[in-house]
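User: For documentation purposes, I need each entry recorded in a consistent format: the amino acid sequence on its own, followed directly by the corresponding structure tokens. There are two entries in this batch. Please keep commentary to a minimum and don't merge the entries.

Assistant: Recorded as requested. Entry 1:
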Amino acid sequence: MSYATMLTIALPEIVLSLGALALMLAAAWGGQAAARPVCWAALVVLIGAGIALAGPSSSGVEAFYGLYRADAFSAYSKVLIYAAAGIAILMAPRFFERTGGDNLRPEYPVLILLAAVGMGMMVSAGDLLSLYVGLELQNLAHYVLASFMRRDTRSAEAGLKYFVLSSLASGILLYGISLIYGFSGTTGFDGIADAFATANSTGLTFGLVFVLVGLAFKIAAVPFHMWTPDVYEGAPTPVTAYFASAPKVAAMALIVRVAVEAMGPVTIEWRQIVIFASLASIFFGSVAAINQKSIKRLLAYSSINNIGFALVGLAAGTPEGVSSVLVYMTVYIVMTLGSFMVVIRMRDEEGRQIETIASLSGMSKTRPGLALAFMAFMFSLAGIPPLFGFYPKLAVFNAAVAAGLFPLAVLAVVGSVIGAYYYIRIVKTMYFDDPAPAFAVSGSTVENGLIAATAIAISPVAYLAIPALTGWSMAAAQALF
């Protein structure tokens, strides 16, 4: 295969890279005034990368000697990543303008584009080396994004915490990669799978554990979740919304690919780790969120809880299980982005950000439309029918039962019931408590449109999309098997 052909296969990443470089130059020349045009241009670049997926980039071939895989699974994941990244860019301009004019800088969308390049490499990785390069490219952009508001001490603290703990996780992951390479003699997923199938090596098992631990940090699965509440609370809200969506999809897709392709012959071994992380995340995320006073910290624990449910589908280790994970992550990012768009609207009359749950009191009377949308997001995150958040939970439970993991499904259902409490508590605060001071009115057509679109996407109307969603996700899942 020629280099021209291989570059064509990796066209989405090339589009993003060239777009990011061009916009970086535009940001340098245009300065602060170029922030909004660069944001809109970044959206065009993301759309272009998405269009590029329609060609050889989803044809099921390998490029760069096995380092890069362009299949239906990676294409599905990249569509979710690009969509979440685009919404995170759309959310940013008005937020940063209201927190201070100099906070809206054109580097923000450029960093997200560069992170999208890394996330694309992650979900297309066919080798531990390309996996690590993609992961670190994503992380380098994320360190800056977490501390993007330079004069905000909470943002600086969030960036520092994320940097330190992410570096630790990267070290653990590298150690696992070195063990696997040392005992298998290769870093390619196919060669690693052959080594696991033919050798009963303790060193390979230890390498498996360390790799999964390093990747578990990226999805904030318990017990590697400790960075999530502090970073979510301290980072600017659009950045928090981005952290809770696109990187979660990329990291989850990466874990699925590594588990199925590289470690498929030892499913029994890694299934035990996944089941523990799943149940621990579900129950810890449910219980720890109960006493939270900050809505951003509550949503951080909600993300931990939801990652636990997604891992239930992975534990099945079947095409149906992987398909359920993809469906779950699709619906999850819609619910999460919608919730954070409501949080962005939580401002007092002077434009200051409010993040306490108590400030939601009586919002049904002061902002009825916003309260209705937030109620839909909360009930959907809880998995309460008839909202669409119920369907992905049902899908992962069905996959677990079909794989013979009935106790796991039962315990996950119990955890779902516990977690529903804090979602319902928010609805009770909005609809039954005495009204708090009303939030400032926002005239943003973009924000209003995004909230309405995401609310419709998790309404009962979305059940009409189930045949298309399940068909696409199953085709993507079967690409791994």
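Entry 2:
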Amino acid sequence: MSVYYTLCFLAALAIFIAFANQYVVKIQTTIAITAGSMLISALLVLFGKLGWFNLEPLAVKTMESIDFQNFLLKGILGFLLFAGGLGINLKALRSQKWEITILSIVATLLSTFMVGYGFWFIAKLLGWELPLVYCMLFGALISPTDPIAVLAIVKKMKAPPQIAIQIEGESLFNDGVGLVIFATVFAVAFGGVEPTFGSVAGLFLHEALGGILFGAVLGLITHVMISATDDGSLELLLTLCIPTAGFAFANMIGVSGALAMVVTGIMIGNWTRHSGFSEQSSHHLDHFWELMDQFLNALLFLLIGLALVLLDLAWRDWILLVIAVPLCLAARFISVSLPYMAFRRYRSYNKFSVRILTWGGLRGGLAMAMALALPSGVMMLPEHGVDLREVILVMTYSVVMFSIVVQGMTITPMITAAKKASGHY
């Protein structure tokens, strides 16, 4: 069966789970799809172990036929980030520009180092002498909050405006920053780049600033073209060119396509929406991209749950699986708390801000895609018979599933308390 047909059937399964959820469990749709697909994966593995309906090999083959890294990082990520950028209120974003900038860059870097060193220390306790750069790879891929997961779950709970714009803005921008950090560490680990300050900073700035600049140019060109026509259908089709050809071209020239999509989305959503679109297409813009976003989100969260069949858990994996979650949560809490100690000198904030940003800092498909992008058979510990890629994949999966299912389902009381504290309840 072709990959296209596989994705068609998986998309149908995701929508079926969402349909059943509204009558059975009635929880947030993306959580229901992730939990439902994970349950399906667990049952397939269990039945395979018991010799019943041995469909596990077929499930593994199906999942392996999908290049998750290319499908997300070089494919639908552009659509999801552009759709997220469209919904950002630029006026509100400006009011929190310093907080979002610091959380996106400083907090992500702090978390990367804390998780990396924490993993290195834990591995040492297990008797593994790991190169620090490999541990930093895990820190880099797990530290950014995932805008796809965050926007799909937290935004719909209507957090107080100040907290909402920080969560949305940080998740959109630190996604791009996180991808750049991961690409930089990856280049040091496997690409022969010397780990000097100049080479690392140069690579980081090229991708990050190049992506922002490219996004601004792309947004300007699209604005001019949309303003030059009154054909409503053509105006919407022009927005489709951004996360397709625009995203692909950004990746081809070596700049951050993720940051480019966020910048272009904000420009189209706040500038072109009011001065470039005809009345007809302006009315349909949000509906069109919301539907696109929901469809691709459903498929992505299904794939995250089904990725369980790709994991082959050994005894050591269960230890790391349990350790990974508190390690990442502790790093997230500290990396958010430290900037807020400085923020509170100049402005007052909701007393639940740090807690919501910590517990609402969800991880999702991006972390999984980056973990799957690690080369197999290269990060070997031959004396222990361990492929570090599989270890990182297990740790990443445990953090992703915990954040989406447990954190996603339990953040509502925290947001409700924040609303009461700010008078928005």
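Summary note for entry 2:
The chain has a mean pLDDT of 82.
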